[in-house]
Amino acid sequence: MLLKRLPIPVLRAFVALVWASDSPMAATYERPTREHMLPSGMMHLVFRLTDCPLHIFDPHDDLHGQSVGSALVGGVRSRYYVRESSAPSCSVGAVLRPGAGPLLFGVTADQLAERHTALEDLWGSSARSVRERLLEVENAEHRLVVLESELAARLPRVRSLHPAIASVIDVMPTLHSVEAAVRHSGISHRQFIAQFRRAVGLAPKTYLGFCGFSAHCSPSERASPSPWRRWLRRQATAIRRTSIAIFWRSPVSHP
Fold first, then answer.
1. Which is more confidently placed, 228 or 138?
2. Which candidate, 142, 129, 41, 33, places its Cα nearest to that of 92?
3. Three-state SS annotation for 151-187
């Protein structure tokens, strides 16, 4: 079974797709099979969870090929290559967008192009640690969660803004609740609130109110109030009640 989907929102500026194949690890072919792999114009990150060897051949007069490791980066290619395998693949991977290479691996895309590179050469022992974590997980969807977590931890903050918050800011006017914003961000509720306040200076609920104000104050909205307008009315009522309570608690003489 092959599972493919979009990554969590915080990764979408850098990752086009995440995928996991869940073939039986003990299965083998009667004889090795070869496939012609066409270039896609994208860089790939792959963790192979089976121990059967995988060989890569150049399409022109390559008799011996290259044995690739269990965690690797497939650089952008301008021509096809030949892949030989002796068993169905049980793998987890990501298709990376242009610009992701330097952020995730510390090298430019042209340094990785036209070849496969062992991830251990780029991440050191962390490559083995991530693969071991993937092996501990039993199904494809949970393996994708582990992979996404690792990639999100390695990506830097964009313009000093947390990637999760950067992914939400532009779409906040289209969201209808803080819970929807949290789901869109892909991080926990507590972390979202803290990071949002740090980046914006307001609580998400307050910021949502400002986002909805101008869009929901037309004459038609006044005739048939939207959820945003009802929310704003509740906020105004709460502010008035708070102001009155503070006024009556104040020890200052009132004129």
1. 138
2. 142
3. HHHHCCCECCECHHHHHHHCCHHHCCCHHHHHHHHCC
